[in-house]
Every structure is written in structure tokens, then in C-alpha cells.
Amino acid sequence: MAALSALVLSLLVCGCASLPSVVERPVSTSIAAPADAPLPALARELAIPPGQSALRSIPMPHHALAARLELIARAQSSLDLQTYHIADDATGRLLLRALRDAAKRGVRVRLLVDDFHTEGLDELLLGLAAHPGAEVRLFNPFAYGRDASPVRLWQFLTDFGRLNHRMHNKLFVADGVFAIAGGRNLVDDYFLRSARSNFIDFDLLAAGALVPELSRSFDAYWNSERVYPLQAVAGNRLNAAQRRARFEQRTAGDTRGSVPGLSEVAAGNALRPRPDPSNEGLFGFFIAPAGAFADAPVKLRNDSYEPGADSVTGRLIRLLATEAKSEVILVSPYFVPGRVGMAHLRQLRARGVDVRIFTNATGVSDEPLVGAGYEPYRLEMLRLGVRVFEVTSGRLKRDAGLRSVLGSSTGRLHAKLGFVDRKILLAGSLNLDGRSALINTELGLLVRSPGLVAQLLDFYRVDTNVGVYEVRLKPDGQSLEWIGLDPEGEPERLDEEPESTWLLRLKLRLISLFVPEEQL
Q: Which CATH number does the domain 295-519 belong to among 1.10.357.140, 3.30.870.10, 3.90.930.12, 3.40.50.11810?
């Protein structure tokens, strides 16, 4: 009874609480390293022409982690990290400790985290921020009761308009000369380090003209009114020295040597212009024109539920409408086209453009409720001639290589990619759903490089349909079947949704009655 009374009291206090009205939010901007520093020297080896960028795809998770650690270790002036989710797990602690080490040697560290998944993380983040040269800010933070789930839920429900708006961007800029952007959160599951579930994901490593664009995007968020210094909303009774000591204790066992697979990535190989060809999946750089675009931190939408023209989704729609001539391949873990998306798919098909969609099967998705928004459009897409492919863990494990790295964990898609006419690559944090289009902020990249596109289509074996079922119309034109295509042997045919149950489908249909499509 006493516990219940305390909970009710805390909820009442929270209901009256708000974010501080006066906040010291010193403006700061990107810092580039001196020309003779290690990272600028490494960038010069790439011989990038003016106005062009050097781009390396990083599909392999151990290379993605190694590249981040190498950039942190070699930086001399600045490190800027923006993420939707960093966890108190082995990966999160490893990266936080590496950032601490950089700050201790005089590098300015700015870490910007969306506040939705920070429950229980304040002590670690405060420990990093207690080191001179390191600063942590939160996007759209919860005001109080930060480590109490019921209090956070109460705040979310009573301040829904604000707290429903999340920063989904993922960006890392080192010394103003190298950047990593893509879909990976800083959590074990995105680097194949989880025993429970792991994501197939993607990053781009960039140098050249693209990096200043990305730095300006980071600065716009860092100095936004939606962003608060961590200490303005979170605190504990420890002084700075005690916070540093607690940080040391909590991260002491998390070092590069403790990570399986990183020992095979030789120091510097993740950044080297010409990597060791025996290191499978570590690709070279392509020189190509590239651009970056991000939603405004205060994202606006109109009353017609259409993406803004300058939003990441609006730019994607415009690109497909003006440049796609023969083929569009879209890869998104969460796919809810909605009324607007279906209109553009119809236009593409009317122009004779072949369209393929790759997404998670509802039964394997970490956000299965999205399936309630996706499934009603599936039949119409197929009738339009759009080809639809669904990733499942079972199909992924039919491949020997994927089976060996996934082990007993559930495998899922998390990469966000687009390929237009096999000439243009689209990447970043954008999901193809209403939440990304209308509510959350996103970051997008556009690269014009047929060579890079060909490399990725080959690596992910998009044309051989590894790891997926193709959804097809049955001859009656009303019902569906799922076809698993193996390189050898007979096709696998299913009449029911793969890796799903009738109970899950019933629950999703009931929940979908109360959840607007744009929230999915």
C-alpha cells in the first residue's frame, strides 16, 4: 500500500512538473582538426576532387564498430555523436569509455542523445559529462522521474504532443573530416553482439564535401531549443569527482580487446584507404557526388498528413518522381506506405518503373504493430505489380554464413536503403512509415555512384532473394502466398504468414483500432 501511495504521489508531482524555463545552452559549432592531424592526413590519401566525397559502405557490424573506435582513437580536436539510442550494454559502455578517453586527452566531445530510451542511463551519461571537454545533451527530454517507468509513461501520456516527437537521426563526425551515418543505434543488437536478437543494418563512412554538410546538421540539432544539457534535467547527489569514479567502475571491463571479432580488424584497417582484401566485407572507397539532408529539429507538418517538401521523406518522394526511369528498390524494416505513399507507387508503376519492396515480416519484426499498418496495403501493391519481399529469421538462417553469425538469436532487418535505376544510393535513418514521414526527425544521404550501388546489391544478394519470402497473389487474385526461393531445391510455399500466429494477428488487429496509422 505504501509503495502504491508513493507511486500515486510521484505521478501527481510529475503531472505538475515541467522542463526548466531558463536553461544555459551555450552555442557551439563544429571544430575541424589541423591539417597535419592524423585524420585530415588520412583523408588526403583519398585524393578527393573538390565538391566530391569518398564513401565506403560498412555492412559488416564488426567493421562498423571498429570504424567508430578508430575515429575516436585518432581524433585530436572534436567528436560529435548524435543517436536515437545508446544502451547500458557492452557496446554502449565501450563507446562511452572511448569517448571519455578522448576527452581526457583534450578532444572536445559532444554527445546528443534522444531521451526516449535513456531510462537508467543518467548515471553513465553524467559520468561522461563530468570529464572536462565532454558534454551531453538530450533531445526532447522527460522532465522528472527519469528512472521510473510508470512516471515516464505518465509524462508521455500527459505531454504526448511534445514527447511523441523523437530524434531518430544517427550521425558521427570526427575532427570535421570523417563521418559515419546510417541506421545503427549504439546498442549490442546493431553490431551482432546480442544473444537474443540481432539486426541486419548499414552505415556509410564518408570524407570530403559531404562531411561539412553533416557537421552543419549536427550543429543545428545541438543548438536547437528542443535540446537540453543533461545536467538541466538529470542529476544525482555525487560531485564531479565521484561521478567520474562511478563511470570508471561501471565501464572498466569494456575495452576493445573484450569484443569478439575486433581482433581480426587490424588497428586502422577500418579506415585505411586500401583495406586488406582478405578482410571479408571491408570495402574500399568510391569517389562520387553526394548530399545530405535532415529534417528540422522542430519538425512541422500540414493538416493533410503529407510530408513537408523539405523533409527527408518529401525529398525522397521528389527524387523518385523526377529521376526514377526503370527501377526502384526500397529496403525498410518498417513499411507503412499510407495514402500518400500508395499514390506515388501508383505513379511509378504507371510510368513503367519496376518497384521492389523489402521489409520485415510482421511475425519477426521488433515492432510487430507496424504490420497492422502495412498489411492492409499489401494486396493493392501486388495488384499494381509491385514486388514485395518479407525478411524472416528462418529464411536468413537458410544461408550458412548468416546462420553462423546469428546463432540462436532472432535475425531482423534494420537497414534503410534505396536504389534508383542502379545509379543512385539512398541511405540514412529514414523508415518508410508515417512516424518517420510526419513525426520523428530523420537524416538522409544521397550518393550518385553506380559502382557503389552494384557493390551493395551484390553484397546483400538482392537479386537472389536470400533471407526472404516473396509475397505473391494466388490465381484467385484475392489471397496471398509466400514463396521462399532457394538457390538449390524446390521453392518453399506457405499459405499463412511466416513466423506468425493467429493470436499475434488478432492482437494487432484489435490494437490497430486505437492507434492512428501515422503513429506506426
A: 3.30.870.10
Distance CA 452, CA 438 (A): 30
| pTM (two decimals) | 0.94
* Distance separating alpha carbons of residues 175 and 379, to the nearest angstrom: 49
Q: Provide, for the chain, the percentages of residues in helix, strand and coil under a 3-state DSSP scheme, each rounded to the nearest 5.
A: 40, 20, 40
What is the rounded distance in angstroms from the CA atom of residue 295 to the CA atom of residue 314? 10
Q: Cell 571479408 sits at which residue?
A: 280
Angstrom distance (rounded) from CA 108 to CA 75: 10
Rounded Cα distance between 489 and 501, Å, is 27
How confident is the model over 457-498, as pLDDT tens digits?
999 999 988 899 999 999 998 899 999 987 666 789 999 999
Residue 182's φ and ψ, nearest 5 degrees, are: 165, -140
CB 283 within 8 A of CB 410: no
How far apart are the C-alpha atoms of 58 and 445, rounded to whole Å?
Answer: 14
Tell me the residue type at 136.
V
Please indicate whether the domains covering 47-264 and 295-519 agree at the CATH topology level: yes
Residue type, 349: R
What are residue 307's DSSP bridge partners? none
Which distant-in-sequence residues (6+ apart) come within 8 Å of 407 by Cβ?
Answer: 195
Q: Tell me what pLDDT residue 13 has.
A: 45
CB 218 within 8 A of CB 109: no
8 closest CA partner among 145, 189, 176, 196: 145
Question: Cell 494466388 identifies what position?
Answer: 474
Domain ranges of the chain: 47-264, 295-519
At 184, give phi and psi (nearest 5°).
Answer: -75, 130
Query: For the domain bounded by 47-264, which CATH number is listed?
Result: 3.30.870.10
DSSP code at position 440 = S
d(CA 343, CA 259): 47
